[in-house]
Write a structure and sequence with these properties.
With about 160 residues, this protein is mainly alpha-helical. The protein has five helices and two strands.
Length: about 160
């Protein structure tokens, strides 16, 4: 199979994953959240770093720096659209219409970048770059969510004790 087939197949997979994330996010807004729901996704995702054991997936220092910076910049959009609220003595993630558009927009940017970069960067390295990009987006986003959640958690428990 040539590298273009890998790009097409992985792009289709990315679209399905994007819709899965939207579905999970919309469903999550109906239930109270907790610390586990915030911190476990990046912990589970971190196992994907095992790909770097295989030389074809390894990145140069400059590629790592570029990808981490871009991921952290993209995470700002996710952070800005992830807010919590106290409802019925529980903490819920607020639904945000902007989140859907941002997630779809980030997915579109990812697909365009993958298509453009696949002609100049080996598919293994490109996979390593996009994994690190996603991880660099998710970690700051989840750290910000954790801090925001804990602020409301302390407020909620202060109110319960009064």
């Amino acid at each position: 199979m040539n590298s273009m087939n890998y790009v097409v197949i992985s792009s289709i997979g990315a679209v399905f994953m994007g819709f899965f994330v939207l579905f999970v996010r919309m469903k999550a807004a109906k239930k109270p959240t907790n610390i586990k729901k915030i911190i476990l996704p990046p912990i589970f995702m971190s196992s994907g770093a095992l790909m770097y054991v295989i030389p074809e997936f390894r990145l140069t220092s400059l590629e790592i720096l570029e990808v981490v910076v871009v991921g952290m910049l993209f995470s700002i959009l996710l952070i800005k659209t992830s807010k919590f609220e106290i409802r019925e003595n529980d903490i819920y993630l607020k639904r945000s219409k902007a989140f859907i558009f941002i997630l779809v927009g980030l997915l579109a940017v990812r697909l365009v970048l993958k298509t453009i970069l696949s002609s100049t960067i080996d598919i293994g390295q490109l996979s390593g770059m996009f994994f690190l990009l996603a991880f660099s987006m998710i970690v700051p986003w989840r750290v910000a969510m954790y801090r925001s959640y804990m602020k409301l958690y302390r407020e909620l428990h202060r109110l319960k004790t009064i």
